[in-house]
């Protein structure tokens, strides 16, 4: 029986193989065509069309407080008006009122007599930093001074009030007794903000002596490269009941300049005081400007050379 079944299976396979091979003269079978689908059933047969509309893209809503990295908003920002700043002048120190040197068409006689001076009288009676503890008032130490100029020199007249006149020092040490000191910055705009002295800054001492064994003397401390006694400065002092009067003619060549009307210089006139007879000591100082510090030009005042027509 099993053998019979095998024969039947082989016969069927043989028939299938013969059926798949077209014999000569036998035409190919007509292909079967599927019926046209009913397109109303789009959910089954219709091809899903590709949309040609660009989908609307919703903007991203930022979260948090991160700073945007894109361009700045197109809205005009509020305009902030910058105030007009007034330039800071570099030819006038803010320390006290400027001092004006009158133009002298006739130079004064340097004899210690001040009756020739009819110009503005200025005062030197302000204590300076670190030098007022021994000062008891204007009767202890103060001065009225006058100042003028011409093409040749700077002229100074000083009427000093001093209750005790003491001077036993000479040369570099005259500041350890009663003296008059002049500071002059001849290049004011050039180093207006400099807090140290340079080659154009001068400090000069004028000593009246002791009206006995010591005569008048002028000494230049700064610039240090020019430090020396100045024989070219003409000076004369005269004793008074209140103290002494003095006059000085300081050639412009001492300062290395040729003056022009309207020139402005850093300036201070100061008085050193010693009330200890027989002792070389620096006890106190008053000045034309209260801010005056010896080696800081920004603490000095201002000197203006008046024009000849303003005489």
Provide an overview of this structure.
The structure is a single chain. The chain is built from one helix and 14 strands. It has 311 residues and is mainly β. It has a domain at 99-310: Immunoglobulin-like, CATH 2.60.40.1190. The model is unreliable at 18-27, 32-52 and 54-77 (pLDDT under 50).
Going by CATH, the architecture of one domain would be: Sandwich
Number of helices: 1
| Strand composition percent | 25-35%
Please give the CATH class of one domain: Mainly Beta
- Order of helix and strand elements from N to C terminus: HEEEEEEEEEEEEEE
Number of strands: 14
Secondary structure category? mainly beta
The shape is elongated
Helicity, as a percent range: under 10%
Tell me the CATH topology of one domain: Immunoglobulin-like
The rounded distance between the terminal residues' Cα atoms is 160 Å
Radius of gyration: 53 Å
State the low-pLDDT regions, or none.
18-27, 32-52, 54-77
Mean pLDDT: 82
Main sheet overview: 14 strands, mixed
Condensed summary:
The chain is mainly β and 311 residues long.
What are the SSEs and their pairings?
Layout: H1 2-19, E1 99-103, E2 122-124, E3 126-127, E4 141-149, E5 153-162, E6 179-185, E7 201-207, E8 217-222, E9 228-229, E10 234-239, E11 243-251, E12 264-273, E13 284-287, E14 301-305
Parallel strand pairs: 1-4, 1-14
Antiparallel strand pairs: 2-4, 3-13, 4-5, 5-11, 6-7, 6-12, 7-8, 8-9, 10-11, 12-13, 12-14
